[in-house]
Each structure stands twice: as C-alpha cells, then as structure tokens.
Amino acid sequence: MKKLLLSSVILGCISPVYAQEALGFAPNSKSPVVNPDSTVTLSIRAPKAEKVSVFGFSAYQPIELTKGAEGVWSVTTPKLKPDLYTYSFDIDGVRTIDPANAYTARDISALFSEVIVPGGNADLYAVQDVPHGTVSKVWYNSPILGMDRRMTIYTPAGYEDNKDKRYPVFYLLHGMGGDEEAWNELGRASIILDNLIASGKAEPMIVVMPNGNGNMAAAPGHTGDGMYTPNGEYSKAEPGKFEKSMADIVKYVDSHYRTIPDKAHRAIAGLSMGGGHTWRTSMMMPDDFDYIGLFSAAVRWNGSGVDNSDEGLIKPLERQFKQAPKLYWIAIGKEDFLYDLNKDYRLMLDGMKIPYEYHESEGGHTWTNWRDYLVLFTPRLFK
Amino acid sequence: MKKLLLSSVILGCISPVYAQEALGFAPNSKSPVVNPDSTVTLSIRAPKAEKVSVFGFSAYQPIELTKGAEGVWSVTTPKLKPDLYTYSFDIDGVRTIDPANAYTARDISALFSEVIVPGGNADLYAVQDVPHGTVSKVWYNSPILGMDRRMTIYTPAGYEDNKDKRYPVFYLLHGMGGDEEAWNELGRASIILDNLIASGKAEPMIVVMPNGNGNMAAAPGHTGDGMYTPNGEYSKAEPGKFEKSMADIVKYVDSHYRTIPDKAHRAIAGLSMGGGHTWRTSMMMPDDFDYIGLFSAAVRWNGSGVDNSDEGLIKPLERQFKQAPKLYWIAIGKEDFLYDLNKDYRLMLDGMKIPYEYHESEGGHTWTNWRDYLVLFTPRLFK
User: Fold this and answer.
1) Residue A236's CB: how many other CB atoms inside 10 A?
2) What is the ipTM, given to two decimal places?
3) C-alpha–C-alpha distance, residues A75 and A66, integer Å
4) Whether the domain at A26-119 and the domain at A125-380 fall into the same CATH topology
C-alpha cells in the first residue's frame, strides 16, 4: 500500500497523463555541452527546419548548425575564451532560446540562453560552494524623483550574524536599457562578490544596484504598468535627475543598513550610461565617494545634464579633486564606440593634472568587458 | 556638439552596427495581446513553418495558429477565465517561448511565457502600485541537513521602517520539482501578499519559502553544481528529513527577523509534496503552528517517512489536536489525482472527531488552484 502510494504520487506528477501546468521538463537533447577543450556543442531537435544558426559566440556572426539523425541539428563552436556567453538560435527566421537550457538572462525585452566556459575570470562568474551573501529587492522612497523605487541590494555573507559590524558600500550602476536587475543577472555581480570575498581578494561590502532610469520605478513587470514590452526607457528620463537622486539612495542605505557612512567607505562605478551617472554623481557629491569607476563610460554625455563650460564641468572637477578620491579608475575597450570620447576626457584630465588610473582592454562595449572591469576594480576598494 | 554627442550615444547603443551583447530587443510582433473580451491574441513570425501551435490555454490541448501576411502566424484564444497563464509555442516540433514576450517563469527545467488575463483573483497576481515588501534570497545553515541552504523570504512593506514592530510568520512550501523560487515565481506569492496586505485583507506578515528538497542546497544554478539541467531532485531526498529540518528554519527565522515567536503567530502551508511536508511538520511540531494549510496535499505520503500505524500517525495527530490549531484547512480540486487520498484522510479525521475546514474547488493539480488557495487562506491568518 505504501509503495503503491508512493509510485502513484510520483507517476502522477511526472507522467504526461497527469502533467499539468505544475511540471515542465526540457527536451531530451542535452544542450549546451561545454567540452574539455573549451568548445561548446549546441544541439536542437528541429526535424522540419531548413536552416538553424546560433548567435552569440563570435561577435554576432552566426554559426550554422548541421542536421543529423532524427532531425537533431548540432554544431561545435571554435575554442572559446573563458567567459559567460549569451546566445540564441535562429530556426528558419524564428529567434528562440535553447529549449534544453534552463538558464537565461533578460536583456531589455529579449531573453538569451547562458553558458559559462570555465577558466580565468569566468570561474568567478560561476556559483561556487562558498559562503553566500543575501540578495534583496528593496523598495525605497526617492523624494527627488517623487516615487517609490526598487533596487537590488547585496549584503555579504556574515552580515546577518555579525550584528555589531559595519560595512563599506559600493554603488554599482547599469547602462542604457538596463535596470536594477542588469548587474546581478548579466553582470553576475553578487556571484562575483561572493567569490572575491571568499578568496580574500575583496573586502566584505554591501553592493547597491539601483535603477538608473530616472523615469522608472522598477524593472519591467514590477510596477503597476503591467507586463509591457520593455524598449529601453532611458529617453524619457529628465537629464541629470537620476544623478541628483543618488543622494536619496545613499541616505536610505545609510539609515537602513549597517554602513560606515563616510567617503573612505563608499565606492561608485557604472557602465556606459551608468558610467556617465557615476562620473556626474561623483562630481556633484565630491565629499561622498573615495573610489570611482568609469566602465566604458558615457562621460560628457549631454543626458547627464552637464555642460562643458567652466561652471558645468571644470569647476566641479576641480572641486572634486581638491580632496582627491583614492581611486579614479577609467576603463574602456579598444573597439568601444565611446573610446574617443574617453580619450578626449583623459586628455582633458591630463591637462588639468588630475590623477586617475587607466585600464585599456581588448574588445568593445560588452558585458565581457564590464564583468572583467568589476573583477579588477572591486579588489581595489576600501583598502 | 552636445546634440551630436547625444545622438551618437543613443545610435551607438541601439543600432545593429553597434549592438553587442549588451542590448536585446524583442521582435516587432506584439504578442501576447490581452483583448477586452478576455481572449488573448498570440502571434509569431515564422515564415517557413508548416505548423504552429500554442500550448497552455486549454489544459494542454494545443491551439493551432493560422499563417497570415509576411509569415506571421496568429490565433485568438477562446474567452479565458481571469488567471495567470503559462504557455509555449510549438513550431514544427520545436518548443519555444514567445520571443516577443519578455515575461517567463521556470518550471523545473523548462521556461514558459506568461500572460495575465485580468479580473477576479488574477488582479491580485498582477503587480499593483501599492507599497511593496522586500524579497530576499537568504542563505541559512541547517544542522539537521548538514549544509548551508537558500530560501526566499518576504518581509512586508514597512518592515524596514517600523523597527520596534514584530511580525507573524507564514511558512510556505512548494511541490515536487519545485524549489525556493517556485512559490514566488509561478505562485506570485510576494505580489499576492503585497496586494492582500495593501487592501487590508491580510495582516502584514513575513513569508518564508524554503527549498523543500532535503538533498538540495538551492535552486538549480545557485550551487557549486553549476548550470546543470534540473530534473526534479525529489527522489534523492531522505524521507522525512526535510520536515525535521523545518525546526532549523524556524529557529533561524526567529533569531534573524523581528518575529512573534509563538504558535499563535506561525502558519504553515504547502502544495502537493509541500502539503505532505506541511501535514507532517505540523504533526511533529504540535506546539508551533496555529494555522495549517494543506493545498492538494500528498498526505499519508510514504516519502514523508511516516507510517500509518498508531505510533506513526494516530498518536501524533491526537497529540497535535490536544491543543487544536486555530485553523486546519484542507483544499483540493475535484479533478486532482490526489482527490481520493485527501477524501480518505478527511474520513479518518472525521472518525477521530478532529476539526478541519474543507475547500473543494474545480480543476486539478494546478497553479491556478494553488494561487487561489493562497488568496483564500492568507486572509484567515493571525486574526
């Protein structure tokens, strides 16, 4: 009786007869498979397809799959550098995720499948069996933006148990089209922090990832606007207002978390638009951040509400560097479309004899670079 | 110059020339469209397909789409009851999410697209512009299971600001194949709680959603096991051990959150396997839970490590009801494959003169029912 019961429960749950909306299994094909030689084999069963390609492994040049037995298409990529790759299939003109892969990340309105090719920094993007921090979706009120807004907050392992300990805070800002989920999903920020802290390479710290779109309360689907199709909400934001509202965020974090509320224990960094936000915020709040990271930053960007006049740019920069931050770190890829903008900015800083560190990488305006920059920048903080 | 710069930054970010892995947009087709008459129109561009169907709107009978202009297939469903629907396309034998829909939920190893048909309880499944609680992914140590494990914890709006206020706790358990993400994703638990609390229908409470698979530390992809293909890890768990480890969870929550740590301020409920866990845990901890919810519960389930003898079942039940809980709530659908099991259990309770409340719904073993049960059960708690 007991055995029978057990079987019926299990059968009931996984057999097609009973399977209702509660249970979903991937198709039998195993994809992706990461091979020992750092290639990745992808496969998908599409018996009637005429052409199947995969995008994502070679800077957006598609790789064609070959049809094999039982309608299963497959391909093995060239040897790949260690990294987190996002990819999608194109089956006769229909773009889709890999249906055999449960792991995806959203980028604006599209989902991509994910796979990690291990080695190097990519091992920091994979969850390891180390102590894990807590990741929370927190709502705060912003008087400056006039709304309740959502952010992602990482508190390091041990935060809940060491009730007397106070922590430094790292504010980490996303780019255009992103939101408060971008750094943690595509950027793997909390996983990277877990791993860097566990290995002693980074100090335990709180990481705050706000929504940098000053007109939005939260990521798509998390507001009363419903499950609309996101299209990158940046264009509607009032220039410069999000940067002003960083003061609300710092105030909220300092009053709700066990922070060390001074310049020496605050860092700020951002990518692309968020690099512009970082650049401008650190200038507007010269006494608040000792560590500043500009990742492929949209510096001098009009959208930041700054002009290039003496009043708008030169004097605030001079003011910021009167008590120079401990680290002003500029990073960009050689192929980044913002390369020249950053070069001009560095020339200006040189002319003003403003000290900074510069990191030039291969590649362009990519999460590959931004994850790398996070891995390089974070160990420099609060030491 | 400023205008030029702005344009180049925006163009640089969204034009195909520059679009790198940072930006993804859905195809132009708008799908799904929820119509005013509670039908849903779905469409997908698949110019070369021979047959396109959608699964999910009629108890797993597929609905065929029709090919129209420019290779766009579409269909309008029959009028649908208000609910959250999960669905997927089948394009010539390839299962895929709706590429124009950014909203998905994972169910074991498969992703499904999501759409809400508004009205009735479904309005509680949609995010409303009300005060929102905080949702956290928290790691705790379980001495009984011998590992660090992850759970989802919801703290209600106001928790962070009312530092002197203490809250009741609702432990909410998932079913087979699920994990600590299931109730919040497929079950929309934190959204439902936000809405019920904001309208005054439910008390502000903490909701704890652990991982009920005693052999797993966390949902797939969140452990050192990497991004493996989940297959429902339930079969490997030692029977009864998760229920024992609920004591670790209660202890952790009472020592890390501002709870009211007594029976009158603790509820526990679960669906299917989690209903079995609830049933057994509430028997093993008779002085700890005053509100018990069995949703389509696998009661008497061998996997709970209980036998049906006097020692294993009758005496613990008598012990539990010596100080009867305030609410012992049994709910199941008429078509649920566990219907007879629950009927037998109720007959036994009747014979023992044990008081309970019974809710019988239409339908079967589905999230439709479990979300409904959550909406019915939660307002009954802590009053």
Assistant:
1) 10
2) 0.92
3) 6
4) no
* Fold held by A125-380: Rossmann fold (3.40.50)
Select from B109, B273, B300 the Cβ nearest to the Cβ of A25: B109
Q: Of A61, A22, A26, whose CA–CA distance to A45 is shortest?
A: A26
Domain ranges for chain B, please list them: 20-119, 125-380
Nearest CA to B237 out of B305, B137, B327, B295 is that of B305
Of B20, B126, B341, the CB nearest to A365: B20
Q: Which of A243, A261, A239, A242 is nearest to A252 (CA)?
A: A261
pLDDT in tens, B124-153: 999 999 999 999 999 999 999 999 999 999
Name the CATH architecture for the domain at A26-119: Sandwich (2.60)
Among residues A347, A349, A354, A356, the alpha carbon closest in space to that of A377 is found at A356
3-class DSSP state of B178: coil
CB proximity list for B329: less than 8 A, separation 6 or greater:
B269, B291, B292, B293, B294, B356, B357, B358, B359, B377, B380
Asked whether the beta carbons of residue A10 and residue B302 sit closer than 8 angstroms, the reply is no
pTM: 0.92
Strand partners, B151: B138
Contacts of A149 (CB under 8 A, 6+ apart): A139, A140, A141, A142, A210, A211, A216, A217, A218
User: Distances in Å between the alpha carbon of A107 and those of A60, A110, A149, B22, B42?
Assistant: 15, 5, 20, 7, 22
Q: Do A127 and B27 touch (CB under 8 A)?
A: no
Class of domain B20-119: mainly beta
A321-346 b/e with 16+ CB inside 10 Å = b? beeebebbbbbbbeebbbbebbeebb
Chain B positions in Cβ-Cβ contact with residue A103 (cut-off 8 Å): 221, 227
Give the gyration radius of chain B's Cα atoms.
23
pLDDT means per 10 residues in chain A (383 residues)?
34 32 57 96 94 86 93 95 95 92 89 95 97 98 96 97 96 95 97 98 98 94 91 69 96 98 98 95 96 94 63 90 96 97 94 97 96 98 96
The two beta strands, A40-45 and A33-34, are antiparallel
Report cis status (omega within 30 of 0) of the bond before B32.
yes
Q: What would the DSSP string read from start to end of A147-216?
A: EEEEEEEEE-TTTTT-TT--B-EEEEE--TT--TTHHHHTS-HHHHHHHHHHTTSS---EEEE----TT-
Say how far apart CA B319 and CA B311 lie, in whole Å: 11
> Which residue bears the tokens 């052999």?
B215
Distance CA A294, CA A299 (A): 8
Write the single-letter amino acid at B239.
P
Of A112, A222, A227, the CB nearest to B24: A112
Share the mean pLDDT of chain B. Answer: 89
How far is the C-alpha of A375 from the C-alpha of A290, rounded, in Å? 18
To the nearest whole Å, the CA of B285 is away from the closest chain A CA by: 24
Minimum distance, in Å, between the CA of residue A46 and any CA atom of chain B: 6
Distance CA B186, CA A285 (A): 42
